[in-house]
Known about the structure:
Chain A is mostly helical. Chain A contains eleven helices and no strands. In chain B, about 35% of the residues lie in helices and about 25% in strands.
Amino acid sequence: MSRRIINNFATSVFILCAVIMTATLVYLLGYILTNGLSNVDWSFLTTNSSSAMEGGGIKNQLWNSFYILVVTLILSVPLGVLGGIYLAEYARPGKLTNVIRTSVEVLSSLPSIVVGMFGLLVFVQYAGLGYSIIAGALALTVFNLPIIVRVTEDSIRSVPKKQKNASLALGITHWHTVKTVLVPAAFPGILTGILLSAGRIFGEAAALLFTAGLSTNNLQFDTWNPFNSDSPLNPFRSAETLSVHIWKVNSQGIMPDVDEIASGSAAVLILFVLVFNVTARVIGNIIYNKITGSK
Amino acid sequence: MLKVKKHAENNYGESQTKERTLDKTNEPEFNSLLDLRNLSVYYGDHQAVKNVSMPIEKNKVTAFIGPSGCGKSTLLRTINRMNDQIPIAHYDGEINYDGVNILNKDIDVVALRKEIGMVFQEPNPFPKPIRKNITHALKFMGMAKSNMNEIVENSLKQAALWDEIKDRLGDSALSLSGGQQQRLCIARALALQPNVLLLDEPTSALDPISSAKVEDLVMELKQHYTIAIVTHNMEQAARISDNTAFLYNGDLIEFGNTSDLFTNPKEQRTEDYISGKFS
């Protein structure tokens, strides 16, 4: 009898925890979206922000967020994936490998504000990049690299050992086995990891405050020469991203529609992160099916 | 033989020739392709194979039997150097393959494994289309695409799989039954035209009907290939092998003609094992 009570009790505890967790998430999402979406329309997405007047939009901030995201991925994906492959396949167990793995773990648990200060010191000041997209992307790379290394290593390790043995026993070199057997099998996992981390980068604010800056030039969306200071593509201009914009508007905004702008931006931000996550799963599945020839 | 031989000659000179020092058997009429000489395999401090000397005869089936953990799989995996995967594994002694010691550090293991193919206990096709499973290694070797169709067809025919799957070569190999997967793995190894085929308990994960098909296949293949098979199943060893080696605790207890070994074992432990007194 008592065993049954304990069993029922344990089951209820688990259900309760799941309900609390889901309810919190649903409430947060619902709150942000219901409050925010009413302020979002096409002109909100395509108008420049204004510092004092009513009716500012988020055009430049949205663009900056995407641009920094792309630059960050270009910097961190190749490094992170190759590093992950190294740790999973080439690193021999030993002191050096442990040091590398511990460093990666420490790096991934650094608070993002610390990464921001580090970026300010090293990229903005010491390297002389100033408040710029490239400095922001480098700081985000510090922040993103360990995640990609981790995801890649885990995905490669989770490919069944027998697959690797099969390939090696056919007289295929280690490198070719990594390239044609392990990486394709691990690809959906790696891709999911990259897209999930993209969501985090997209929403990151603290690491960008001191690296990408709080202001944006008056971008001319018909000037695509990356060396022009008003060009959207210029990586050396300062760039306020969407999440930084939310923080700034909330803490320093003097325009009358501060709340509307903040909640509208938050809704847009959340929507894009959701899109990243859903795309991650869909694309991962499609590619896996294509590689394996299963339907 | 190509690369394997070249490397060893560089290292040893041509003076090293085949000599027969088979202490346990001492029967010069063995027409061996592989000679194991005082072979010991260690995992760290643990000695998994102890000073084993025996021949593996050309175009015959050699079975390795013995209880779990007796070192038979380790021994098999040493022959194509798959144990190199394990960082703490190391060897003593020699395995002579056509006059070359394949345990030599300078051997090109990639070239070696093309000549000494291996099929594993659990079917392990790549999660790719059936055809790509076979062309995977061919592509790596740089074979022209025009030759591949023929090899795919021939090796699937040799593995007695062609008629069952010829219409769905583009399907995932994972959609095949376990027995078909295992025969695909054999076909995949055959496509490289190896001299030796190592089978590590190839039927232990299969149902009886699939097992019988794989056994028939092995009997068929020995005309063209030298086969070494590890098995838990003594009936299987008796049915399909020409020679049998009984290992216990890493020691080679007895080696000989299969029918002799099963009907008239010289060692008490062999008799106890094949009569089922221990396993």
